Structure formats: C-alpha cells, structure tokens
What does this fold into?
Amino acid sequence: MQNFVTTGREEPLKEDVSRRIHTFEEIYEFFNNRVVARQADRCVQCGDPFCTTNGCPLQNYIPQWLEAIAEKDLEKAFLLSNETSPFPEILGRICPHNRVCEGACTLDDGYGAITIGAIEASITDLAFKAGYRLPFPGITREQRVAVIGSGPAGMSCAHFLLRAGIKVDMFERADIPGGLLAYGIPGFKLDKWTVSHRFEILQQAGLTLHLDTAVGVDVSFADLRRDYDAIFLGIGATNGKLPGIPGEDHEQVFLAMEFLTSVQRRLAGKSWMERFSVRGKRVVVVGGGDTAMDCVRSAVREGAASVVCLYRRDADNMPGSAKEFHNAMEEGVDFMFFEAPQKIDINKDGDIVGVDAIRTELAEPGPDGRRRVKTVPGSEHCVATDVVIMALGFDQEPHPFLTENGITMEQWGNIAIDNTTGETSLPGIYAGGDCQRGADLAVTAAADGRRAAFGIMQQLLG
Ligand SMILES: Cc1cc2nc3c(=O)[nH]c(=O)nc-3n(C[C@H](O)[C@H](O)[C@H](O)COP(=O)(O)OP(=O)(O)OC[C@H]3O[C@@H](n4cnc5c(N)ncnc54)[C@H](O)[C@@H]3O)c2cc1C
Ligand code: SF4
It folds into this structure.
C-alpha cells in the first residue's frame, strides 16, 4: 500500500468522443484485475479515513476493500464492498465522487484522490464476471414487508430486509423497476443491464415485484397496511419544476424527465412520443445539475443541430458531478453561464425562435451558505433555439393516500420521519430517499433505504 508517490491517479479509459456521441452505451471501460489492484495500492490506509467518515453517505468500508483488492483478493473486496452498499457497481458509476468519497480523500490535496468510484464499480463487475454470488439466506422469517417504489431507496431497503431473511413485496407503478435509474439516468452513464441484473439478484433472494401497480390507484394503501407487517415509502420526488416564465407551456418546451423518458423508452423498444424528438433542432437546456447534463448529452446523441446549456451560476457552482460536466463539454455542448431565462420567444407562426435571457451575477450567501444570484438590469438578450428543455429540479408529487392516512408532511411536501429509524408519524410506516429529503442523490436514497430496513428489523425482530 501507500504507492501514491510512484503511481499516479488513473481514470478508467473513455470511449473516443467521435464514437460515443452516436450511441447511448456506457462511455467508461472500468479497470481490469491488474489496474484495479495498482490503483487501490495507492491508498494510505488513513487512521481516520475521511473517505468513509466524512465523504460517504453509506460509510462504506473503503480502506478495507481497497486493501483487499490491492492484495488481489477479489472475493474479500467484493463481499466487503457489498456489505454496506446495496449496489456498489451502480454507485461506483453514478455517484458525484468529487463531492463525496474522493473529495474527502486525504490524497485529493496534491497527489490525486484514490479513484474510489471506478475501483468500486470494477470490483463488483469483476466479481460478477468471475462468478461470485452474494450470500442471501432465502426467506427465513414469517414477517412480510411492502416496499412502495423501486428506485434506489426502495431497492436498498429491499436488499437489507432480504439479507435478514424477510419477505419483501415491491410495488412499482412503472413498467420496469429502478425508479430514476431506469428512465432517468441515461445508458451512457449507467448501463441498463446493471440495474436489471440487480433486480434479478433481489428476485432470486426472494423479492416479488409488482410492476404497473400504483399504490393509491391500483392497490389501496389500507390493503397494504392490513396485509404487511411494515411498509417502506420510496416514492421519489418526480414533479419537474418550471421557471414560471411566459411561453413555458409551449409544446416544444419539455420537462427534463419527459424528454429523457421518451428517449429511453424508444431505446428500450417501448412506445415513445415523436413530440420529444430533437433531431436536427437547436436545443437549449436550462439548469446546471446532473439532470441538465443528462439532457444535454442525450440531445447530442439524438442528433440535435446544436445544444446550449443555460445556467444562472458558473461551472464552479454547478450542483452536479464535475466529471459529467467535463464529459458534456467534450461532447460539444456549449455552456452559457450566468444566464437566467425570462421568456420563451414565439414567432407569429407559433414556433419557438429563442429564449429571452438576462445576465446574472453572484450575490451574498443565503441561509444555506450558497451565494444567491441577482440579475443584471439592461442585459437582456435572446438565445436562438427551437426547443427548450427545463432541468430545474423536482418538487414532491402530492400522493393523497399519505395525508388521508395521517402521515405528517414537512415543508415542501417532504415526508416527516424519525431520523434514527426512518419511521414516519404512522407506526410501522417508514420512508426515505427523494420523497423524504427532496431530490438528491442515489447514494443518499440508498442510505435512507438501509436506515429504514434496520428500523423495520428492530421493530419486527427486536
Ligand atoms: C435525470 C437524472 C439524473 C440523475 N443523475 C444522478 C447521478 O448521476 N448520480 C446520483 O447520485 N443521482 C442522480 N440523480 C438523482 C437520483 O436518481 C435520485 O436522487 C434517486 O433516484 C432517488 O431515489 P428514490 O428511490 O428516492 O426515488 P426514485 O428513483 O424517483 O424512485 C421512486 C419510484 O417510486 C415510484 N412510485 C412513485 N409513486 C408510486 C406509487 N404511488 N405506487 C408505486 N410506485 C410509485 C416511481 O415510479 C419511481 O419508480 C439523477 C436524477 C435525475 C432525474
Ligand atoms: S482517505 Fe483516501 S488515502 Fe485515506 S483511506 Fe480513504 S481512500 Fe485511502
């Protein structure tokens, strides 16, 4: 270990830009056995590993699995990595590592952080390829739990309950499982097989999936309360936000998830909507987070004539992953920083011709410490476009069954919980992920799902 002086940080190989912009296939080729051991061998094995204690929302055993793989013990690294994380090969691909584990790594200051994300994805990929399987006991208990929503929060809760031998039924209103991992995050970041493979594992472990089943519509919440010993709510925050500007109801103004879902449904051979096609069109995407990066990069692959990202702060203040911003730049996306949309410009034929925008600048920090934005008077101008995609974040979707059953909600419609157990105000009903914390990350949703699984186990098994 501690080879960081002689061995530099290596990134996984990336598909050449000229080829990757024509496909939705993953752009990274993760490490082979030799490279993964060499990169892990750089780790200092810190006494207080900030990667875990400060960086990782799951508090993964990062130094331990780095040491195991540096010693070429793939099985041990695989088991350690899967001990705390319900899907390390997924989070190794999509976590904003610069903001979590790698951003907290001691070596990030000068030598280059350990490539924790790529090593994490590589370990589980290599182990599955080598034939290693995760140990699940089978259903050994009489208790049954219903999980509503199949995104990272629901997947994680189900994973840890199944590991304790508890039967899990999962209810998902979509036609495929995975939540935003399925129809939100595109294949160039997360291969769809990786998600469906995790569901195969969960189903082999005893999960029963009920797809096309919306709770509150196709099955009542009261019936689930009667039939199950506990319920986990992992129903996400799915209502796309609009800026509230004139012209935003034009049919060529899309919400990010309308566009991404339509593209991914077509790629999956399912029904999709021609209205969301951007082939040959000029596209402006408004927003600067992960969702905006997925939209701009999808629009490039869909054959847009040009793609511009309009963001009201600058690159240093973008909320998403720095890696994905750089990938978007490489793929030819034009970034216009310090810009806020004011109005959609529509000509007399009813077609969009541009977005009227105004320049912005950073102002004093708000209560969250983040610098606010103010507009610069007199700086209005038009950015020419045919299509506008709004990627401005998500609000909670009102689910009447929550309030009808007396579940307490917080400000902004987030479900209120006990922070230790994840239990809501209704005994036996737990919640986590975006529906409880607001739109955030897959890894925080996974941590919430795990917390609730432990809360449920405490309640059911003592
Ligand atoms: C485009 C996009 C890109 C992103 N990129 C990243 C990234 O790179 N890295 C990252 O860490 N995070 C990313 N995120 C955020 C991340 O995907 C979410 O934070 C995470 O998926 C939240 O998980 P969840 O399980 O709480 O909710 P979701 O993933 O939203 O899953 C909720 C599920 O509940 C289902 N559901 C809702 N109501 C019902 C009901 N009544 N009955 C049955 N089912 C129901 C929904 O259909 C959905 O499948 C991205 C988000 C988007 C939109
Ligand atoms: S902080 Fe970096 S160097 Fe230290 S244990 Fe974690 S990965 Fe290794």
